[in-house]
Amino acid sequence: MNQSDAPGTLAQRLRLTPYQAYSYSYPHKAAYRALPQPESLERLWAEQDRSALFAYIHVPFCEMRCGFCNLFAMARPQPEMVDRYVAQVLRQMRVLDRVLGERRFARFAIGGGTPTYLSAAQLQTLLDGARDILGIDLHATPAGIEASPETVTPARLAVCRSMGVDRVSLGIQSFAAGEMRALARPQQNSVVQQAIARIRAAGFPTLNLDLIYGIAGQSVASLLASIDSALAFAPEELYLYPLYVRPHTGLGKLASRKGVTSFDPVMLAQAGDSRLDLYQAARDHLLAHGYQQVSMRMFRAPHAPAQDGPSYCCQNDGMVGMGAGARAYTQRLHYSTDYAVGRSGTADIIEAYLALGEDGFAQAHHGFALGPEEQRRRYVIQSLLTEPGLDRAAYRARFGSDCLRDLPQLLELDQLGLLEGESDLMRLNQRGYAYADTIGPWLASDAVRALMAEGGPAC
Fold first, then answer.
1. What DSSP designation does 453 have?
2. Alpha carbon 347 to chain centroid distance?
3. Residue 260 carries which DSSP code?
4. Residue 133: exposed, middle, or buried by beta-carbon count in 10 A (0-12, 13-18, 19+)?
5. pLDDT at position 1
6. Are the C-beta atoms of 367 and 330 separated by less than 8 Å?
7. Which of helix, strand or coil describes residue 368?
8. Cα distance between residue 116 and residue 59, in whole Å
9. What's the pLDDT at 341?
10. CB-based burial label for 123 (10 Å; 0-12, 13-18, 19+)
11. Cβ neighbours of residue 391 under 8 Å, at least 6 residues apart?
């Protein structure tokens, strides 16, 4: 995690790079630690509203390790490990079936890594398990899978679509060969085009394409050219990710060899940072093509399917994670396995996962306990950084208090002109979204910042 020791006020932070940390979830996994004692999942989930859960399966395997990637994943594992892993996820499902009790799932996803690294038969096994063991009706539940162009085959797609998966997210990153080389991610556009054609032919209602900006040598013109190449396929969703250079990644190791001694994002940006200019040009381009901005990173097309599936609200927690590296969220505890970036550390954690028995799966051993203050901060951060924004009335209904009294620093958002709309809905305007990676870490508690600053494999 790139966590900066930036000044405390938002006004001070805004004078620095907008790219200080990606707050896709709070608290970040870098703040997780071994729990003082194991927590019974049966007791934990008994306290939780289980009427609209998110089931997530993590597949930590890939064809290759991209230079920018700091995910929990390993490239080209032994086939025997992959077979054992799929079987172990089903074992974990059976334990969860018992400890969760009565429940209803509102969302389902398989992420990674690269889930489509698995064979069609292995994907079938996992999807059958989700249906038969956990009771998820995938044809009635919004369900997605992540993929890379090299692993998209008709057989894998046929399994996923026949089982009810309705969204495929494809990591493209760039259509410029030189930029892909700079990312240490060899990829041919012909392979990308074939993968998209196969996804379209298989009939998935939603195609998402991921692009990265801030790549070495990238210009506004080349980024917009990549976006236009993506728009030619009329994706229902498009994600724009800023490049972060992190330690332990391929790009991080290359930077170290070139003399970089600090991966503090503020320090790195002092050498030159074009990402804000790139982002603003890309955002304006997508808005001009009719896409709606949902968050700093996500844009949805006007022809995207209506979001009319079962209701799931990330602010209300209720995520059931399965697999090594998967995180699970309840109101008072977020838990997972340990985390690593390097191959040996990742392999050790996967082997530890493969060795777990029923008792191990019935307990949480590693995570972060959220007291009342952290629960409030999480709700604020998760609401504020995406559409439709932070609803103060909904906050009052949940916590019995006003968010501006609980977190008076929020007043600075309006003072700095980062909000728009009605007073009871705190919604970021375009400038506010541009600084989402500043606002998120600014709202983190001192305790979370301290844990993240300690470093470790997740950084």
1. H
2. 21
3. -
4. middle
5. 42
6. no
7. strand
8. 9
9. 80
10. buried
11. 383, 424, 425
